[in-house]
Prior knowledge:
Layout: H1 2-24, H2 29-43, H3 49-59, H4 66-109, H5 116-141, H6 145-159, H7 164-184, H8 215-228, H9 233-247, H10 253-265, H11 273-305, H12 308-314, H13 316-344, H14 348-363, H15 368-382
Helix pairs in contact: 1-4, 2-4, 2-5, 3-4, 3-13, 4-11, 5-13, 5-14, 5-15, 6-7, 6-13, 7-13, 8-11, 9-10, 10-11
Amino acid sequence: MSDVRAERTRLGELALLFLKLGTIAFGGPAAHIAMMEEEVVRRRGWLTHAEFLDYLGATNLIPGPNSTELAIHVGHARAGWRGLLVAGSCFILPAALIVTAVAWAYVRFGTLPAVLAVLAGVTPVVVAIVLQALWKLGRTAMKTSALAALGLGSVVAAALGVNELLVLLGAAVVAMAVPLLQRRVQRLPVAGPILLHPAIGGAAAAAGAAVSAPLWILFGTFLKIGSVLFGSGYVLLVFLRADFVQRLGWLSERQLLDAVAVGQVTPGPVFTTATFVGFVTRGFPGAAVATLGIFLPAFVFVALSGPLVPRLRRSLVAGAALDGVNVASLALMAVVTWQLGRSAVTSIPAGIVAVVALVILMRFRINSAWLVLGGALIGFSLRI
């Protein structure tokens, strides 16, 4: 009986935490990961920094939305299969409801609600949250000078525009090569080369107009996208443009850009862009079907890969590859944070908000939700 009560307590804690994060986690995957690190590692101690990094690295090796998959991993580690479902669903649900409401207003009034002032105050706070998380996670990930150098190289590659998947795979191969060479150096004078030939697809676009979409095609299209998409929300734009503007002709270019904008400016997973597209094409049923289609593969991939993460860590070679993926993941976060900072901190008041938030985070154990709320109020009041 006590075991049942303990499980219910864990599930309730997971539900409350990820409902909160799904409601206040602005800023995209890098910010979501930073907030999860604060809540799961530092505030609650559910995972160590090393375990958190391993799960973060694992999310970068499978398709789908990284921050959502990380939430699902945390749920599985905390409360098994039920925790997997509760954490992932609760992280997605608030964002999906918010995006549905925005989509309703968009269809009803023909434009997006005015949120720029609030976002102008929130985004500098998000930059500070991510910087603090990078500092904490980086100290755990950079265990050797070789990993630090690998991280620096990954930053340079990402800044030069190398595809995110290539950066991650390249870091894994380089990190894995060290123990392989150490094993074979006594038997072979020269270690054989490791060749990598990844293939990544893309598509072009045309213009179109929204129509009433068959639900099964809507579901199947988003299921396909959720099953094959690596990378950021900007990569999602390529898939949406190819399928919904060019191939199906259900969206116009303007509607596509509006959909991506809603996914970027609302809290929670960026992939709730699918919710907006679903509502525009088929109303409330379309929003539900599109959301289910794009997020369902994440639950499946995490359920299949999650049990393998501890085994990877126990293997010398696989553990080294995971170390490489971890530092490359942080490097990608750093580059995204730099890009976000350049667009978010464009005025003296915004700069002051970012610096003050960073100082508060580094000096005091304060919940980041209060800082996000404070930034929103400042932005709305001062129109920074």
